[in-house]
Design goal:
- This protein has 15 helices and 10 strands.
- The strands form 3 sheets. Strands 3, 4, 7, 8, 9 and 10 form a 6-stranded antiparallel sheet that branches.
- Helix 1 packs parallel to helix 3 and helix 12 runs antiparallel to helix 13.
Length: 373
């Protein structure tokens, strides 16, 4: 999508921030953008403040603003570049590559994203193909992993340029087959191959930008997205954490903080993408934002809005996971009603009524669709 139109109420402050940025007064630029954001959550201003934070080497805040911009304008490519750049400078190379890849999917013509993706991949692959240098031996944990039982003679070495990122926990194999390796390198000797569903205990590590799980003996790659493999392991705690994030989203939604709700639901989806509720809830928050921003707009414009498209995609994903989820059908009907799509709205409400013939929301929504059109 093209660059969103800046909200008129903050246009002047945005221009002041841009001028300060061009003059390399990044602190003043941040102040101007922040004042604008106190008035309205504008994606262009958020993206620009992200860039200003990055110039001051404050990459955590740059990530935060880029994520906020994406929650408001998920089909706009520039925040993907901002976010990927910040993640890369934080040493989170796998996440940076994943972000650039998503951006290219959103806008395949963006040469800046294509170049950033190519450079990030080349940089990361130089680490992946290199055998990590071994540091002094680490004493193994006394708690044995659930699986596997590995060769007891295998030396357990912590690589240089790495850090532990979390406590020891139980993980499950998501991918069809995952290799346990002697050292955290895809070129390292394979000790064992585990199949989908197998449970392992270990501590997560960041090894030169790639996430690995340190077992009692050996290492397993947690996430191989940057290598084209996808998610390999997931934490057994992820569903519980996802519930907490979804509840946080519900709290924000009740408080009418819809952008914050979208971010919380997105976190829940990242933790547990198989939960239909989080997808449908994120759609509900985007529908609420659409109602705020789409007042008095022609229905054709509403249907082209990124909130509409993202909400529809989320609802379709929710229903693909659970076709019997009544709330998803109701929200789908409401979304089509807002977009002026009478037949689609009625079809969604009818699907809901098949699940629950007494549903007041489906009956009222269906009647409203008939009245409006």
């Amino acid at each position: 999508m093209p660059t969103p139109i800046v909200n008129k109420s903050v246009q002047s402050l945005k221009v002041q921030g841009d001028e300060a940025y061009e003059a390399k007064d990044f602190s003043l630029a941040i102040d101007c953008y922040s004042e604008a954001l106190d008035i309205v959550e504008d994606p262009v201003v958020l993206s620009n403040r992200s860039a200003a934070h990055a110039q001051k080497r404050n990459f955590e805040k740059a990530c935060e603003d880029a994520n906020r911009a994406l929650s408001v304008a998920p089909q706009w490519a520039r925040p993907f570049h901002r976010l990927g750049h910040a993640l890369f400078h934080l040493g989170r190379y796998g996440e940076a590559i994943d972000t650039f890849s998503h951006g290219v999917l959103v806008d395949g013509d963006d040469v800046h994203l294509q170049d950033a993706l190519m450079r990030a991949r080349a940089f990361t692959e130089s680490f992946v193909t290199a055998q990590p240098e071994a540091s002094p031996r680490v004493v193994p944990q006394t708690t044995k992993p659930v699986t596997p039982t590995l060769n007891a003679s295998t030396e357990f070495m912590a690589p240089s340029g790495s850090r532990q990122t979390g406590p020891r926990a139980t993980f499950r194999v998501v991918y069809t087959k995952v290799v346990v390796r002697e050292t955290p390198s895809v070129q390292a000797h394979a000790l064992e191959i585990l199949s989908q569903g197998a449970a392992v205990q270990g501590a997560p590590w960041d090894v030169r930008g790639l996430p690995w799980l340190q077992l009692e003996r050996g290492w397993m790659l947690i996430d191989g997205k940057s290598l084209g493999l996808g998610q390999l392991l997931s934490s057994d705690d992820a569903p519980h954490e996802a519930d907490s994030k979804r509840e946080l989203g519900n709290k924000h939604f009740r408080e009418k903080k819809y952008s914050s709700a979208v971010r919380a639901y997105s976190d829940a989806i990242d933790l547990d993408p198989q939960d239909a509720r989080s997808w449908a809830n994120r759609a509900a928050a985007q529908i609420a934002l659409l109602k705020d921003f789409g007042k008095n707009l022609p229905e054709s414009v509403v249907r082209g809005n990124s909130y509409f498209q993202s909400a529809l995609s989320d609802l379709e994903q929710s229903l693909s996971l659970d076709s019997g989820y009544l709330k998803a059908w109701i929200r789908k009907g409401q979304l089509h009603t807002i977009g002026g799509e009478k037949n689609e709205a009625i079809a969604a409400f009818d699907a809901g009524l098949k699940l629950d013939p007494s549903s007041t929301e489906c009956k009222e929504g269906r009647a409203l669709s008939h009245q409006r059109y």
